[in-house]
TrEMBL record:
This is histidine kinase. It comes from Paenibacillus hunanensis. Its EC number is 2.7.13.3. Residues 238-452 form the Histidine kinase domain. Its main location: membrane. Gene3D superfamilies: 1.10.287.130, 6.10.340.10, Histidine kinase-like ATPase, C-terminal domain.
Length: 465
């Protein structure tokens, strides 16, 4: 007995489908065989009418229509038997279905049980005329016992073949079900271990079709979870270091200043360091809060009309001091028009601040960073931040926008900057692309829907040094 489960369902479904198919085929086959045999007998009896000469008188009817293995009866139009080729006496009028058919002018056929004996017989009847006016019914009656025995034998043989086919189908369906269920049971077992937190297990075996895809997907999921956990661990380690550094500076200078005995310059320096580290700490916390809001779809945008040129000019002014420390030149190429987009100005500025800040961070001293605005399509505008810095290898190019990912964790940061940037761009129905070549610089392209294009205004701040 097959236990409850998918195996039983598969076997049962296959078995029912094949059983119904075999039953239908056998019924059609047996009906066709029966029809073939009965029609053959009927045609043989009817051909005797066509091949027999009309008798000269009433007494010659039986002898004229005599036929081996068939009884010949001569009936009047009321069904009374007038002559019979056998000694069997019929004392009642014949009222079977072939009589009305013969009286209507066609050849009548009837299959049933012979009255008195209960034997299966076939009767074929036709009307004839003697001397052109006298009408009689000539009726052939033949036994169907031998034919029915042969049909019964054929039925038993076909039923036996059907049973054998069903047994084979049952065995094949069990094997097929096992070939499906065993991999699924294996997948369930491995999935259970994964659900308990063991992500080092993998589904082994090359399974075909959808089951193979399912196994590969689960293995990929486990790999991604392991990778995400590793990234999370690295992030926790990194953020702990990032938080500890400013806190250590704040604590150290606070304790130092509390002890007293410093001149105004030293006190000013200590307070400046405390202020700088506090801003750094606030930046880290805000970055994590932004990421949390984005992950929970809780970031609210204050949408309005934003001039891209003005946003980029403000961005350049905000990072000017940092660029000046490395003698990096910031160049704005605003194009031949003012481009207006529907956006949250502060969040859009956050995007470009992060991109330009990264460009400065990874660019060599005395290099140039370009900010380019150009129309991409009639309803699309592209902002490009291009540097000539260290670039990103192909291996890491697709991963740099992943959360917590850092090409070089030793350089500090949370690994959330580009992930947040990309999600803010997506909230504005835009796209962000990165093109980079190792040691030859990086270009970050932000595509946004264009609301309006205005004629260019005088450029007051094209370069910031």
């Amino acid at each position: 007995m097959i236990k409850k489960g998918m195996t039983r369902q598969i076997v049962l479904h296959y078995f029912i489908v094949v059983f119904l198919t075999i039953l239908l085929v056998e019924l059609v086959f047996l009906f066709a065989i029966r029809t073939y045999y009965y029609d053959g007998i009927s045609n043989y009896l009817q051909s005797s009418f066509d091949n027999t000469r009309a008798p000269a008188n009433y007494r010659d009817i039986v002898s004229s229509y005599s036929l081996d293995k068939a009884e010949v009866q001569v009936l009047d139009l009321k069904g009374n038997v007038l002559q019979n080729s056998t000694a069997f006496i019929v004392d009642k009028p014949v009222q079977t279905g072939d009589i009305p058919q013969a009286l209507s002018g066609s050849t009548g056929r009837w299959i049933g049980k012979q009255a008195g004996t209960g034997e299966d017989v076939m009767a074929v009847t036709r009307m004839i005329k003697i001397n052109g006016d006298k009408e009689y019914l000539v009726r052939y009656v033949t036994s169907l016992e031998l034919v029915n025995q042969k049909l019964f034998y054929i039925t038993m043989v076909s039923a036996g073949i059907g049973v054998i086919i069903l047994i084979v189908v049952l065995m094949v369906s069990i094997g097929l079900a096992n070939s499906i269920v065993k991999p699924i049971n294996n997948i369930i077992g491995v999935s259970t271990l994964m659900a308990k937190g063991d992500f080092n297990v993998r589904i082994k075996g090359n399974y075909p079709h959808e089951i193979g895809e399912l196994a590969a997907t689960l293995n990929y999921m486990a790999d991604e979870i392991v990778r995400s956990n590793q990234i999370k661990d690295d992030f926790i380690s990194s953020i702990s270091h990032e938080l500890r550094t400013p806190l250590t500076g704040i604590k150290g200078w606070s304790e130092t200043l509390v002890s007293g005995g410093f001149d105004p310059e030293e006190t000013k320096l200590g307070m400046s360091i405390i202020s700088k580290e506090t801003e750094r700490l606030i930046g880290l916390v805000e970055e994590m809060l932004d990421f949390s809001k984005l992950q929970q779809n809780q970031m609210k945008l204050v949408i309005g009309q934003v001039n891209l040129k003005e946003i980029l000019q403000e961005t350049m002014l905000n990072v000017w001091a940092k660029a000046e420390q490395k003698q990096i030149k910031l160049v704005l190429e605003p194009g031949d028009a003012s481009y207006i987009v529907q956006a949250d100005g502060n969040r859009l500025k956050q995007v470009f601040l992060n991109l330009v800040d990264n460009a400065i961070k990874f660019s060599p001293n005395e290099s140039t960073i370009k900010l380019v605005i150009k129309e991409l399509a009639p309803e699309r505008v592209r902002i490009v931040v291009k540097d000539s810095g260290i670039g990103i290898s192909t291996e890491f190019l697709e991963k740099v926008k992943d959360r917590f990912f850092q090409v070089n964790p030793n350089q500090g940061g949370t690994g959330l900057g580009l992930a947040i940037t990309q999600q803010i761009v997506q909230l504005h129905k835009g796209e962000m692309h990165i093109e980079s070549e190792l040691d030859h610089g990086t270009s970050v392209m932000v595509d946004l829907p264009l609301l309006e294009k205005k004629p260019a205004t005088p450029d007051l701040t094209k370069e910031a040094n």
